[in-house]
Automatic annotation (TrEMBL), chains A, B, C:
This is Protein from nitrogen regulatory protein P-II (GLNB) family. InterPro entries: CdAMP_rec, N-reg_PII-like_a/b, N-reg_PII/ATP_PRibTrfase_C. SUPFAM superfamilies: GlnB-like. Signal peptide: none annotated.
Length: 109, 109, 109
């Protein structure tokens, strides 16, 4: 048994939760802040058998890895603004940090 | 020293907190969601000396184990409903998942 | 790599967050309650290279250790009260509890 502590961006956390449920991976979700200068993030505590650690890591990577996205910034109401401000811009979203911790004992009651 | 991470149902968490205080067991409470498809749950982080691990596990088991309970469902206001709907029904409540993690160092300032 | 779990008083948590950012230490903040009969506390999860563990512990100690402080209690509006009630009194604030856990693997995506 291992304990995986995974910190992902809020925007990826629902998708990851759903993946965990679908794959029958037991994860507990903590609401967290700070870290990495990023605003909102979510921490998952995942208890998992040794031979499924890689599967969980692959799932987190697939769902939450850093990627570039085009976003249209909100329209600026200030008429004096440069019109280019509302064109789509490329931003980096996502990213996950994972720690695998040893577990000495595991019990369910 | 060990770190016990215990996930219990919200409805058992106050009773467990009180038990920890009474037995002089230092526990920190995190508000958590998800996991096991169950709605609200509470995660406790418990730092404990090696020779008290079993005592803590016994306490969690006693306070939070899965058990069947009779519950009277809320009365349904729809007069056309089958009257049997307000008879007590048996439901399963409680349940705890515990991980014991090794601790390399412990310090208080 | 180690995982440091540090529990500090709420009143010290912002100062500690700022120190972590300044020293480029990646910490995630959990909102926690209970433990030690103290009301509000904050738990930090800090993933750190082995050779920086002592640096993090020193920072937590410096920022959050138990110390005595003089506080002026709020003025009591009841005119019949003893006037000495609004003199400064010495109270103990702060305090940190730190656990260092081994980490078997660490990955960022
Ligand atoms: Ni991709
Ligand atoms: Ni029982
Ligand atoms: Ni000092």
């Amino acid at each position: 048994m291992k304990m995986i502590i995974a910190i992902v961006q809020d925007k990826d956390s629902n998708r990851l939760s759903n993946q965990f449920i679908e794959q029958n991976i037991r994860a507990t979700k903590l609401s967290t802040t700070g870290g990495f200068l990023r605003s909102g993030n979510t921490t998952f505590l995942i208890g998992i058998e040794d031979d499924r650690v890689q599967e969980v890591m692959d799932l987190i990577k697939e769902t939450s890895h850093t990627r570039d996205q085009f976003m249209t910034p909100p329209v600026n109401m200030d008429v004096s603004m440069d019109q280019t401000a509302s064109y789509p811009v490329e931003v980096t979203v996502g990213g996950a940090t994972c720690f695998v911790l040893p577990v000495e004992a595991f019990q369910q009651f």
